[in-house]
Amino acid sequence: MSSPSLPHIVGSVPPIPTPLLDNSRCDAEAFARIAAHLETGGIDAAFVLGSTGELASLSHTCRREAIEASASAFTVPLLVGIGDNCLEESLALADAAANAGATAVVLNAPSYFEISAREMRAYLDRILPVLPLPVFLYNMPWLTGHRFDRETIAHAIQFPNLIGFKDSSGDLDYLRLLVEEAAVRPELTVLTGSEFQYLEALRLGAHGVVGGGANMYPALFQQLRAAHHAGESATAAALQRQISELGNSIFGLTGNPSSVFPCIKGGLAALGLCSPCMAPPLESCSPEVVAGIAALIRQPVPA
User: Fold this and answer.
1) Residue 90 — φ and ψ, nearest 5°?
2) Is residue 254 within 8 Å of residue 285, measured between CB atoms?
3) Radius of gyration in angstroms for the set of CA atoms belonging to the chain, rounded to a whole number
4) What's the pTM?
5) What is the strand order of the sheet 15-16 is part of?
6) pLDDT value at residue 299
7) pLDDT, tens only, 67-90
8) Which end of the chain is more exposed for a tag (fewer CB within 10 A), N or C?
9) Chain-wide mean pLDDT for the chain?
10) What pLDDT, in 10s, does the model give residues 84-140?
11) DSSP letters of the chain?
């Protein structure tokens, strides 16, 4: 069922903000700066065009520019989000990712319409067999309104090009379910999308994290995983507290419901790597918020 040539993605996989020159143009040079910063920090892979990458707000042209720029910039494995309510557009994004040299694609549930679990499985039956790259399924009920149920998870695992799951539900019982289901194929990986639960996710058997804070302080995520695998439980717990405190201090600074996404990009702006500019409808971080993030990054919370 599986192939030894499929990639095995584990560890820290930050969701990369899409750097913009204005509300619609991708900043390719900034992608190069971001990649250099993150790879120096020791990331294991990079995920572009996810929620943090503003996939839903970007034009088709900008999405393709982001794919090409990130593929040129990163040397670590590159995951590309292809979620779209139009199946043909998802396939076109997957083709663009494959042509650019990406490692895998990430597919979330369609949004907008209420759909049944049966319709979800039929959708996967249509799209998974024709994707040109290995695929992660992305569970993000907060934004899509849909959760992959247990039957759908087991159904998806039958597809040999599936290489894992990313879960951003924040529900540890659901994460445990994913780990249990994925165990039937040991090469599958499960990534948590909640950096606040990273240590607990590792304890449950998850293989890594897609944490927004890793864009700003990537070394903390590597140190936590290393401490956990070395059995250094006190050190791992202290690092988890530090990551959580930084996230709690930074992610809500705009006061808006989706503040986490502008604030992650604002963190990169605080490091001088890109503009804080967001695509509408999300509001960009003000200079005051960027300065506040810079101060927090310079003074990490004591472990």
Assistant:
1) -60, -40
2) yes
3) 18
4) 0.94
5) 11-12, 208-209, 189-192, 162-167, 135-139, 104-108, 78-81, 46-48, 15-16
6) 65
7) 999 999 999 999 999 999 999 999
8) N
9) 94
10) 999 999 999 999 999 999 999 999 988 887 889 999 999 999 999 999 999 999 998
11) ---TTS----EE--EE---BSSSS-B-HHHHHHHHHHHHHTT-S-EEESSTTTTGGGS-HHHHHHHHHHHHHH--S-EEEE---SSHHHHHHHHHHHHHHT-SEEEEEPP-SS---HHHHHHHHHHHGGG-SS-EEEEE-HHHHS----HHHHHHHHTSTTEEEEEE-S--HHHHHHHHHHHTTSTT-EEEES-GGGHHHHHHHT--EE--GGGGT-HHHHHHHHHHHHTT-HHHHHHHHHHHHHHHHHHTTTT-STTTHHHHHHHHHHHTTSS-----TTSPPPPHHHHHHHHHHHHSPPP-
CA triple 121-192-242, angle to 5 deg: 165
Question: CA 284 → CA 256, 276, 281, distances in Å?
Answer: 11, 6, 9
What are 225-252's pLDDT values in tens digits? 999 999 999 999 999 999 999 999 999 9
Structural tokens at position 258: 């989706």
Q: Under the phi-then-psi rule, with left for phi > 0, alpha for psi from -120 to 50, and beta for the rest, what region is 170?
A: left
Q: What is the pLDDT of residues 191-207, one digit of tens each?
A: 999 999 999 999 999 99
CB 139 within 8 A of CB 147: yes
- Domains in the chain: ranges and CATH: 11-230 (3.20.20.70)
C-alpha span between 216 and 47 (Å, rounded): 15
Q: Token pair for residue 54? A: 């503003």
